[in-house]
Amino acid sequence: MTDSSGLGFSGGSFGGDLSKLADTSILECKICWWQYDPAIGDEYWQIPPGTPFSRLPDHWSCPNCDGHRAEFMVVDN
Ligand SMILES: [Zn+2]
Question: Which pTM value belongs to this model?
């Protein structure tokens, strides 16, 4: 895990607080590194492109490892 910001990694944690997320935020599973990109959506759960992470259904979990939504972290571009 690399950290180029010097601020530590806690700032990127999603931690289940959806209010912190922008609609365009890309989130990454911290278990398997699978990424959710709102511009793409998610074929596995039949999520249409343009769906923000904060609006995913409650039953949504990582398509790759079944990790919980709260296990995702915001990816800084
Ligand atoms: Zn995963």
Answer: 0.76
Give CATH for domain 20-77: 2.20.28.10
Question: Which residues neighbour 39 within 8 Å (Cβ) at sequence distance 6 or greater?
Answer: 24, 49, 50
Nearby residues for ligand 1 (ion, Cβ within 5 Å)? 29, 31-32, 34, 62, 64-65, 67
pLDDT in tens, 14-46: 666 777 789 999 999 999 999 999 999 999 999
Q: How far is the CA of 7 from the centre of ligand 1 (A)?
A: 25
Do 36 and 26 meet the contact criterion of CB atoms below 8 Å apart? yes
